Every structure is written in C-alpha cells, then in structure tokens.
Amino acid sequence: MEMNIALLPGDGIGPEVIAQAVKVVKAVGKKFGHTIHFEEAPVGAAAIDLTGDPYPDNTHDVCLRADAVLFGAIGDPKYDNDPKAKVRPEQGLLRMRQKLGLFANVRPTFTFPSLIHKSPLKLERVEGVDFVFFRELTGGIYFGEPRGRNEQGTKAFDTNVYSKEEITRLARMGFEAAQKRRKLLTCVDKANVLATSRLWRETVQELAPEYPDVKVEYEFVDAVAMRLIQWPKAYDVLITENLFGDILTDEASVISGSMGLMPSASLGTDIKLFEPIHGSYPQAAGKDIANPLATVLSAAMMFDYAFGLKEEAQAITDVVNKSLAEGVVTEDIAEGGKAFKTSEVGDWLAENL
Amino acid sequence: MEMNIALLPGDGIGPEVIAQAVKVVKAVGKKFGHTIHFEEAPVGAAAIDLTGDPYPDNTHDVCLRADAVLFGAIGDPKYDNDPKAKVRPEQGLLRMRQKLGLFANVRPTFTFPSLIHKSPLKLERVEGVDFVFFRELTGGIYFGEPRGRNEQGTKAFDTNVYSKEEITRLARMGFEAAQKRRKLLTCVDKANVLATSRLWRETVQELAPEYPDVKVEYEFVDAVAMRLIQWPKAYDVLITENLFGDILTDEASVISGSMGLMPSASLGTDIKLFEPIHGSYPQAAGKDIANPLATVLSAAMMFDYAFGLKEEAQAITDVVNKSLAEGVVTEDIAEGGKAFKTSEVGDWLAENL
Ligand SMILES: CC(C)[C@H](C(=O)O)[C@@H](O)C(=O)O
Ligand SMILES: CC(C)[C@H](C(=O)O)[C@@H](O)C(=O)O
Q1: What architecture is domain A1-102+268-353?
Q2: Cross-chain residue pair B229–A251, CB shorter than 8 Å
Q3: Taking the model in full, what pTM does it have?
C-alpha cells in the first residue's frame, strides 16, 4: 500500500516522540512492503513562532492531502497564565479539529501488566480495566457562539450548543464500538441541569432500538467522575460531549498507571488523526528523556483505524510489549533499572519489529 | 443561645438521616444549654407529590425565617431518564440555592483512620489528604440564559456566564480559608478554552496581591481531574465554577473511602445551609439502613459556620469518631461486625454526646 502521512510534531517533547514513531512506521513499511511518504508541518507554539498562527493554512493543506495525520503535542508555558494573550497554541489545536472535522475523539483505557503497579488505584480495582471513551470533539462549549465579554469587560459568557446530527454521528460510533466489544454503552450527561444534555439523552434513547444487542445506561457526569475511580471495570464504551469528555478522559488516563503509554485517535468523515494523550511536557523537551510509547501506540491505532491494517498494528503493539518486558524503557518507567533515552527506545523498537 | 433551624428532609433516605441529626442537635442543645426550635418543610420529589412544586413558597419562607437550614437529599428515580419531564426534583434544589443566595458550596475532603482502607486509592496516596473545595453554586451554566431548544427541537443550548462580582465573592472566601489553612489556593478553570474561565483567572490574579501570604496556583480542570487521584495531598483550598465544582467535588468525595461521611455547607450572605454530600439513595429508603454520619457531621459544620460554636461542633465530631472507634455503625461500613440501624446509630450518638 502507498500511504501519505502528515507529521505534526508540535511543541515540547512532540518532535522527539514523533521522531520515534516515524522510525517505527518506517520499519513497518519495510517489513510489510508499504511505501510511506511523510510530510511535516508546524502547529502550536512552534507554528506561532514561525508564522504567527498556531494552525497555518499550509499545515492544514498538508493534512488535507494526507491519508492520516500523526500529531505530537501542543502547548508552551510562555502562553500560560496570561488570560489576555491574543494567540494561544491551543487555538491552533481547536481550529485544526474543527477544520479537519475530527468530531470523534477515541480514547481507550487499558492496563499493561508490567505497569499496573504504578496505578494510584488498588490492584483489585484496576486489574482488567478495559473501556473506551468516544468524546465529541468539534462541538459544544468549545465552539459555541456567542462567547466573550460584555463591553465593560466585567462579565464573560460561553455557549454550549449541540444539534441532533452532531450527537447522532458520535453516538452511532459508540453503539458500533459497543457491538464489537462487551455491548454496554454509557451515555454521560448532565440531563438534570442542561438543555444540551437532555438532547443528548433523548437522541441516544431514540437510536437505542436500532442497536438491540447493546445495553444502554445513562449516568450523570458527576456520578461517572466517582465511578471511574471506584468501579472502572464496570465500563465498556462511554459517549459524551466535548467538555465532559475532556475532564473524564483525563481522569480515566491516570487510573491505569500508564498514562505515558495511552494513544488516541480523532476521527472525521474523511480525515483521521492520531496522537498520544499526554501533553507537551515542556520541562522534558530537548532532553531525549520523554517516553515515546504513547505516540508509537498511536501509530499502531493509525494502521488499524486509518488503513484497516490490523496485522501491522499488532506488530507495533507486540514490539511495545516486548520493550516493556525487556526493560527497554525511558526513565519515567525504568524504576531503578537502566533508563534508555527516547531515541534509543525508538531505535530498539524499529530494529526489533 | 436560641436557634431556629429549618429542616428540609427531602427524598429517599433524607428523612431518616435528618431524623438522626435532629436527635444529635437536641442532645447538643441540652448539654450546652441552647434552646433549639425546628421547623420542617418539604422539598424535592416529596414536595412535588404534595404541592406540584419541588421548592414551594412555604418552604422558602421556612428557610428565610430560620438561622440555619439542615437539608437531607433530593431525587427520585421516577423523575429520571425522562428528558421530557416538566417538573424535576433537582429544579427545586437549584431554585432553592438561587433564591437563598447560597453562592458558596464548601466541601471538605479528609480521611478517617478507621475507614481509609476503604479508599480505592493506595494508602500512601490518600493518607493525610486534607483539602477543601469552594464551588460557586448560584451562577455559571446552571442558571445562564438563554437555554433551551430551537423551534424544531433539533438543537439545544446552554449559556455559561459569570460576572466579576460573582467570582470575587467566591474567591475571597477561598483566599480567607487558605489563610487559616496551609496557605495554598488553586484556581481551577479552563482558561485555554473558555471566556468565563479567563475572567475567573484574571479576577483571581487581581485579588492575589491582597493576600500576600497565600500562594496561588492556576490549573486546568482536566489536569485537576487527574491530580486529584494522583497527588491529592498536594491540594489545600480549591476554588472553581459551578459545573467544574460539581464534577470535581464528587470525584474528590470518593478518594477518602468515606463518601458516606462527608458533610458540606452552602453559604450565602444571610443564609447558611448544611447537607450531606451523598444522594437520596432511593434503594435504601425506608429500610433504616442509611448511614446518618454525613448528616450528623453537617450539623457539626452548622454549629461552627452558622453559630460560631466550635465547642459544640467538636463535641459532635468527637462522638462520631467514638461511634466509629466502637463500631456503632451502619451496614455500609460495618464490615463483618454488627451492623446497627440508622435509628440506633442516631440514638447512640445522642446518648454518648
Ligand atoms: C489543550 C486543550 C484545548 C485540549 C482540550 O481541552 O480539548 C486538551 O485538554 C485535550 O483534551 O486535547
Ligand atoms: C442534583 C444536581 C442538580 C446537583 C448539582 O449538579 O449541583 C448535585 O449533583 C449536587 O452536586 O448537589
């Protein structure tokens, strides 16, 4: 197969972890006989520094002509804590999601036997955890209008808005995923307070009869925030709106003890983007110490979700597991054993694939 | 002292747990020589059944003429999962908060040595946890207008809105609490996305110089959702808006392992209300098995926050600790030991105060 992959390294450790994923993707191409073209483009603070825009038109064009996008991370401390900053790296991320139509953010949570002891939760609570969030990513309060301030600047407002279509296309993805998994779908909302949540619940209730093999549960976002910690094994597929998804997927990411390894996919009708869930870790940037495994596993998701190549995806997952088993890991998970550099882990994965 | 206390038992187990708190409050009155008058009024589903309104005017009047309000819980399954229901018990709760001006919800999280093993978190993560949330309770997306549907019903919207005044009065409470505690204030927002959050951050930044002894940190809501599980001991006082507070205080409530014991206060300029953080547990209602300790500890908060009577508050806390030490507890925490009835625990507390 011939594939065009856009590389958006972004900020902080982004370039370093993307570089390792590229090594692994190239090794997959060699092993399975695929021709893979890469095209790189700036995004985030890196793009602001270059062009003044966190998501330049040229970067958008690079994504549009690619078959899949591999994304690193965005964010730079020089733009934080300045509520009056005019351009922020995150705006680039949001604009990218919207312009590429990436309406579904898929975030699996699962455990690695060799890392589960790092979970803040007790072993019996977290062992065997395996659920996946479908977070709506291009709607809700992230994009709703009007938003801003009154004239005097003493009052601020944001608008949360959802249409039935937006809810339906996200919910269908969740239903379909549930059909292939343990057949439980949890709709997470705040229907006891929000009009948008009531439309979510109503829409999901209307769709449910089309998926008679899927059991649907409705839970309030505050209850899920509790139960994710108490009984994370109870969940299979969860669907939710943009803001609730932001909070809950991050909460979910730490329970497995392997936050640094969790991949994600952001899916649109045409374009699919893959990225580690961790941030840009500015403190670690340039030190060759960042853990590249989440980005490498995001590349595995790419072969599966974007190209339907399950064997290639599995080969990556296998070599990641091998690196964990043999202790070829970065300092964040080395635990007294030898800590390998980011680039060394990437080299090892590519060689051992 | 002479005190008028409004009792709003509400739904589910509300009446049973309030009845135990009343026994304890009466015992305090006897011991310390206070004359305490109680006036009871319906709220929630109970009030809908009686009057069609979840927060009837008469209940409001009872609260207005009281010095403090003791509240049970609200919510009934017959109103859940019906997105089209016209009246919902929760509307009563929200209207009550707004009409009484209860703008600050104070939710402490701490541990009980005898219950800490019930925490889903590992002991070393949770031992010694001691923080308190100040959640804004009468603003934000809970009340903002416009909210509702478009004409065809295919689109729904909610409005998040905050004024500088609303943020200021809540933030000042947080600063003052931090001054009396470990002098760390965390402002929780989503300033990288929301206009309202940027006003929160800006307002807190402007207030900070007035409290030079308090260290202020700014964290995104998604990061806090993670760190509450990973490093809960890092927090002291947290301030946040209504919706974030709803999610995060519930998340916080389960980490101590003693969710069933956590009290709360909702403070306004004139009126102060006290309630357990747990819900109405309809499954347990009428069985005399509900744990009354959170409501009893809410009564302790009442003596402290509403009447400035710290000795009385301490006497309640002491007798609760004694009941835990001696195993006079309900089935949810009895663990193989004898399980006492709700009413038996209340009697024991009143007798042993
Ligand atoms: C950086 C921020 C705008 C973003 C979000 O809130 O969506 C991030 O937290 C995420 O979840 O990808
Ligand atoms: C019942 C509901 C409206 C309420 C809220 O969201 O405020 C509850 O979750 C709470 O936190 O007291």
Answers
A1: 3-Layer(aba) Sandwich (3.40)
A2: yes
A3: 0.95
